[in-house]
Amino acid sequence: MPEFLHQDQIDKFYRNGYLLIPGFLSPEETNNLLQRSKQLISEFPIESHPRTKFTTGDENHVGDNYFLTSGDKIRFFLEEDAVDGDGKLNREKEKAVNKIGHALHELDPVFRKVTLGNQKVQAVARDLAMHVDPVALQSMVICKQPQIGGEVGEHNDSTFLYTDPPSALGFWFALEECTPLNGALSFLPGSHLTTPITKRFVRLPEGGTGFEKIVSPEVEAHAASAKGKYILEACSPGDLVLIHGAVLHKSERNTSSHTRFAYTFHMIESSPRALYDAKNWLQPTPSMPFSRVLNEPNLKLINPALA
C-alpha cells in the first residue's frame, strides 16, 4: 500500500511523466526556503564572483571551472541579461541571480531538512518505486528574475543527469506563485514513453562542457518530430511537481514584474543498479558523495530496468 500518494496519483505520474501535488510543503516550510534563498543571495560577495552566466542553450552552455566544481558547493549563477559586455552587472545583485546551486541539500540546514530530513519526500520515493537505493544530487534555487528570467527550452532531465539505465527523478517545489506570465513549467504529457533520450550533457576532453549524441541520426530525427500539446501547470507556493527524467518540459521567459522562485533537487539510482559515469558534468567528491535518500532499500521497485 502507498504511504503518502494515492494509487491514482502514482498511475497519473507514470501515464503523464509528471505529477503536481498541491500544498506538499507547509506555508512555514515554504517561507523558510524562500527567505533563506533571499538571504543567501544578499550575503554572497559579488565582488569576487567570476561573473558566471547560466544558459541552457546547446551552443552556449556554461563550461567554466566555477560551474564544473559546484557539485559540492553553494554557488551563484547570473542571468545572461544581467551582465553587460564588459562583465559588469547592469542591475542590483538581488535581481541578477539566475540560480543558486548545487549542494544546497547537503550544506545548508534549511534546505537539507526539506530534502534529506523530510519523511514525506522519503515516502513519495518509496511510493513511486522508481529506485531501490536513490541518491540525491543537483539541488538548486531557480529565481526567474522579472523581465529577464530566461526561457528554458524543451528538454528532459536525464540529458543532464544521465545514468545507464536512465533513472532521474526531479522534485520541484514552488516557493512563489508560478503563472503563465512569470515562467510556470509546461509539460508534454506521456513524452517519457514515446521520446527517447538522444543526448547527454558531458565534460569534454578538451575542457568545458557539451552535448554528446547517444542515438543514431534516424532515432534523433524521430525524437525531434515528437508532437503533442504542452500543458502549463500553474503552481502555488508549497506545491510539488514530480518530474520523470525522460518527460519533455520547458518554461517561458519571465515577462512579469514578479520573481518565480523554486527549489529543485533530483534523485538517481545508485550503483550497481545504474551507472553514473565520469562523463557527467556533476561529479561526487570524496568529501561529498551523493546523498542517500532512504535508510533502507526500497522493496517496491516498479522500474524493471533497475531490477
Q: Give me the number of helical elements.
A: 8
**What is the number of E strands?**
14
**How confident is the prediction overall: mean pLDDT?**
91
Taken together, the total number of domains comes to: 1
CATH level-1 class: Mainly Beta
Main sheet summary: 8 strands, antiparallel
Describe the structure.
- With 307 residues, the chain is of the alpha+beta class.
- The protein has one domain (7-284): q2cbj1_9rhob like domain (Jelly Rolls), CATH 2.60.120.
- The chain has eight helices and 14 strands.
- The chain has helices spanning 7-16, 27-43, 65-68, 104-107, 109-115, 119-128, 191-194, 217-224; strands at 18-21, 74-78, 97-102, 134-142, 152-155, 169-174, 185-187, 199-203, 209-213, 231-232, 240-244, 249-251, 262-269, 291-292.
- Strands 1, 2, 3, 4, 6, 11, 13 and 14 form an eight-stranded antiparallel beta sheet that branches. Strands 5-12-7-10 form a four-stranded antiparallel beta sheet, with no helix packed on it. The protein has a two-stranded antiparallel sheet with strand order 8-9.
- Strand 8 and strand 9 (209-213) form a beta hairpin.
- The longest helix has 17 residues, at 27-43.
- It starts with 6 loop residues before the first helix and ends in a 15-residue tail after the last strand.
- The model has no long low-confidence stretch (mean pLDDT 91).
- One of its GO terms (molecular function) is metal ion binding.
- InterPro entries: Phytyl_CoA_dOase-like.
- It comes from Lentinula edodes.
- Its cofactor is Fe cation.
- It holds the Pfam family PhyH.
